[in-house]
Amino acid sequence: MSENKNNPTALTVEEGKRYCWCRCGLSEKGAICDGTHKTADTDKRSLSFIADANKTIFLCGCTQTKTPPFCDGSHNSL
Number of structural domains, the chain? Predict the structure, then answer.
């Protein structure tokens, strides 16, 4: 992945569907959990959530957000 992993990931979600946000920062899919935490030396687990509407959201890529799993701009101060 060539883009900066600290940047937010835009994701179009479907109402009622479950998604998993990566909190370990090791996912090859950016802010979308790919299960890497299961084999990595980390105690951080993904955060699952259910979309409340059909819309585009921005998931935090730096994992420093105060509003998980959503980007709050924390990456701008890193």
Answer: 1
Predicted confidence (pLDDT) at residue 5 exceeds the cutoff of 60: yes
> CA 25, CA 42: separation in Å to the nearest integer?
10
Residue type, 28: E
Strand bridging mode 18-21 / 47-50: antiparallel
Host domain of residue 31: 9-77
Residue 66's alpha-carbon distances to 48, 54, 60, in angstroms, are 16, 23, 10
Q: Average the pLDDT over 2-16 and give the result.
A: 86
Q: Tell me how far the alpha carbon of residue 9 is from its chain's centroid.
A: 7
Domain assignment of residue 4, yes or no: no
Cα 77 to the center of its chain, rounded Å: 18
Q: What is the pLDDT of residues 28-48, one digit of tens each?
A: 888 899 999 988 888 888 999
Q: In which band, very low, low, confident or very high, does the pLDDT at 1 lie, cut at 50, 70 and 90?
A: very low
